[in-house]
């Protein structure tokens, strides 16, 4: 600003001496004055009129933690659901067999004889585990209407072997019948009636207990081999069974036996024919009588009855 004033003053002085020179110097001073004004002018700051105070809201955001620290559970415990739709039931694994238990296997079919006129045929069996109690081969069918029964064995010792007599049910009431014990001939006849297969198979089951009253079943297939005319066994399998399944099976077997033998029968006859104990047969017949599946009538002995078939059992 001072420099511009000096130029203007000098321009006026020189104007007195020479108009042209003075005008030029004065014009330079005015130009400098304008330039100085433009560069030194400060921008105006707008004033905000008074107004109501503004409330400031601070947003609370979750603080991000850049550290990645997942928790890993090494125990893999998936839940398996059975069925369709929503359910909370999980799959139930089969009950494990006790490590210490009886293990009965079918070995071979054999015949033992007291003399030339008296003999018995049956199964050689082995126990590969602890002592087995109440060993009973279940009644089985080899052809339509043709059944086989077996004698109950009270005990097979741990590591022991036993011969179990089996006979054809249809000859049970025939004294000294040769056919009663001839399971091989009966299997051969069933094979010849069945077709041209090389083998004829019949499923077998033996049931037994341990000292803790646990029930077990060993199952195998009895095979008639036509080319060698002999009876053999397939590999034996074992499982643990529960009392309710046994109850249902006994009822089915007893009812079928009574239906096939349309005459009044004593409890002992039913037990022998079905291949169960007399106590089991008595309980089963009483349940079937309560379900209107059998008839019964008293006989002379107190508390004993004879039973015969009536019809299908009513549901529980």
Question: How are the SSEs ordered, and which strands pair?
Answer:
Blueprint: H1 2-17, H2 19-40, E1 104-113, E2 119-127, E3 132-137, E4 140-143, E5 146-150, E6 153-156, E7 161-168, H3 183-194, E8 199-209, E9 215-225, E10 230-233, E11 237-241, H4 243-260, E12 265-266, H5 267-274, H6 278-290, E13 294-298, E14 305-309
Antiparallel strand pairs: 1-2, 2-7, 3-6, 3-8, 4-5, 5-7, 8-9, 9-10, 9-11, 12-14, 13-14
Helix pairs in contact: 1-2, 4-5, 4-6, 5-6
How would you sum up this structure in a few lines?
The protein is an alpha+beta fold and 316 residues long.
Tell me what you see in this structure.
By secondary structure, the protein is an alpha+beta fold. It folds into 3 domains: 2-38, no CATH class; 100-241, no CATH class; 243-316, Arc Repressor Mutant, subunit A (Orthogonal Bundle), CATH 1.10.10. Helices cover 28% and strands 28% of the residues. The protein has 6 helices and 14 strands. The strands form 3 sheets. Strands 3, 6, 8, 9, 10 and 11 form a 6-stranded antiparallel sheet that branches. A 5-stranded antiparallel sheet has the order 1-2-7-5-4. The model is unreliable at 45-94 (pLDDT under 50).
